[in-house]
Amino acid sequence: MAGHVLAPLKQRVYQELRAQIERGELAQGEKVGELAVSEAMGVSRTPVREALIQLEADGYLEGVPRRGFRVRSFDEQSAREVFEMLGPLDGRAALLAAPHMTEDDLANMDFLCESMELAIAGGLTERYYDLQREFHQRYIDRCGNARLQRALSELMGQLSSRSYARDDAQALDNMRAANEEHHHMLGLFRAGDGAALQDYVRDVHWSLENVRFAAW
Question: What span, in angstroms and rounded, lies between the C-alpha atoms of 35 and 42?
Fold first, then answer.
């Protein structure tokens, strides 16, 4: 029974600390102590410890020997490493999903593309981030490979909305280009061309030229 109680507490601590990091309330290099978090959030140290370990595994924190954890940055090298894995895996998910996409799936993805355009026009960058995650998740859910889905969830979880939340014309242009790619992907899904999808997602959508926009 204790495990069932600890799991929601760990998730609550994880989500709150991750949100603080993404909002910049916990700055790069700042120490995150188990006891301080436990006292601030009013929970025992066990779920806090588990949440901190998970945040380290997900790339938000780094362990410091005998000193606990501190906030790490997600620099261009980190983004490059994620892109190098995401491209092939997301492309494979698209290939596997292509024969199983329904008209409802495609209509939903079309709606998401249009919604992303409105979000960009309105400067709602964090909303754009959420919408593009939904777009990718739609076909990932159809790929039929649970291990691939878990791997993609972990990798995409390292791409933060914080990288979108900046007043940067070049970043907005990058979002517009990315959404044009979403439209192109949708066209390939409609054509049922899984092989072309795999190549396009891997080599264009997750091009290493875009890693600088994912850093934060």
Answer: 10
**Taking the model in full, what pTM does it have?**
0.74
Residues 6+ apart with CB under 8 A from 119: 125, 127, 128, 131
Calpha distance 29→40 (Å, rounded): 20
- pLDDT string in tens for the chain (216-residue length): 344 445 689 999 999 998 888 777 888 889 999 999 999 999 999 999 999 998 887 778 888 887 889 998 778 888 899 999 999 999 999 999 999 999 999 999 999 999 999 999 998 887 898 899 999 999 999 999 999 999 999 888 778 666 666 556 777 888 899 999 999 999 999 999 999 999 999 999 999 998 888 877
Closest to 210 in 3D by CA, of 162, 165, 183, 178: 178
